[in-house]
Design brief:
Blueprint: H1 19-65, H2 69-78, H3 90-117, H4 123-132
Length: 148
């Protein structure tokens, strides 16, 4: 394989790093990618709860306008602006997750890559791509033409 027909240097394992290490580091990164997905879902939860709270407030305004002010007031006092967890709105849940578990996991993943692959990202995936793509076939290039 010519240098131009393989992964960019930033996606190649440093000299002397065996494939089993590359695969293990890839596994750590894959686990962190699951956390990234979970984080996205947490942010979606944050947005959805906020939207539901706003929509409930609007519906309660309509209920009040329809002559049911006492019921609307009861629900406003009980539900609108209520904590979703003990002492927390969703923004506080997101911040606690980001500042704690998410940051620790991300730092650990970066530490493993730095210690074993000189900080390079997606080395395992680049190796997988090399084993799966059809060399020389259009649409199966190792990297974009402008990528070194």
């Amino acid at each position: 394989m010519s240098h131009d027909d393989g992964p960019a240097e930033r996606h190649r394992a440093p000299d002397g790093v065996p494939d089993d290490v590359v695969e293990a580091v890839g596994g750590v990164t894959a686990a962190f990618e699951v956390i990234e997905h979970a984080r996205g879902m947490l942010y979606a939860f944050h947005r959805l709860v906020g939207r539901a709270d706003k929509e409930l407030g609007e519906a309660l305004d309509q209920l009040e306008a329809a002559g049911h002010g006492d019921l609307a007031d009861e629900l406003r006092a009980e539900i609108v602006g209520r904590n979703v967890l003990d002492g927390r709105w969703t923004f506080q849940v997101v911040e606690e997750f980001d500042d704690g578990y998410y940051r620790a996991f991300g730092d650990a993943e970066a530490h493993v890559r730095e210690a074993l692959l000189a900080g390079r990202r997606h080395v395992f995936e680049a190796q997988l791509k090399e084993s799966e793509r059809t060399h020389g076939r259009p649409g199966h290039e190792a990297r974009p033409a402008k990528d070194g």
